[in-house]
Amino acid sequence: VQLVESGGGLVQPGGSLRLSCAASGVYYAIGWFRQAPGKEREGVSCISSGGGTINYADSVKGRFTISRDKAKNTVYLQMDSLKPEDTAVYYCAADRYNYCSGRMNYWGKGTLVTVSS
Question: Which end of the chain lies in a sparser environment, N or C, as judged by fewer CB atoms within 10 Å?
Fold first, then answer.
């Protein structure tokens, strides 16, 4: 099992980024988490194995969109209208189940997103 994030970088407030999580050997629900400097890690979004169930943290609803390409075994996080408070290291993680239980078994190494002018 391997999870590899990509797509992070520096973006101005109001801008967009798309993160990717290549999830080889993983067929369960996938979640995105983030950890800002000096803060605890928080859940951002999750998508079930079939893609039929999706949830978002209140702080990103209406701005972030999670999706899943089964053929490529990749989960994406489209982030629009980015704010400085979105600055964090973003991680993807594989759930123990096909649904979003919050009990994650495997984690990627993370990708840094910096929102600054």
Answer: C
Degrees to nearest 5, angle at CA 95 with 22 and 80: 55
Task: Tally the residues of the chain.
Answer: 117
- The CA distance from 93 to 108, in Å, is 6
Rounded Cα distance between 22 and 14, Å, is 26
CA pair distance 103, 9, nearest whole angstrom: 28
Q: Mean of the pLDDT values across residues 22-28?
A: 87
* Alpha helix (H) residue ranges in the chain: none
- Nearest alpha-carbon partner for 69 in 23, 17, 3, 107: 23
Please name every residue paired with 73 in a beta bridge, in sequence order, or none if there are none: none
Burial classification of residue 116, based on how many CB atoms lie within 10 Å of its CB (0-12 exposed, 13-18 middle, 19 or more buried): exposed
Check residue 28 and give its pLDDT: 93
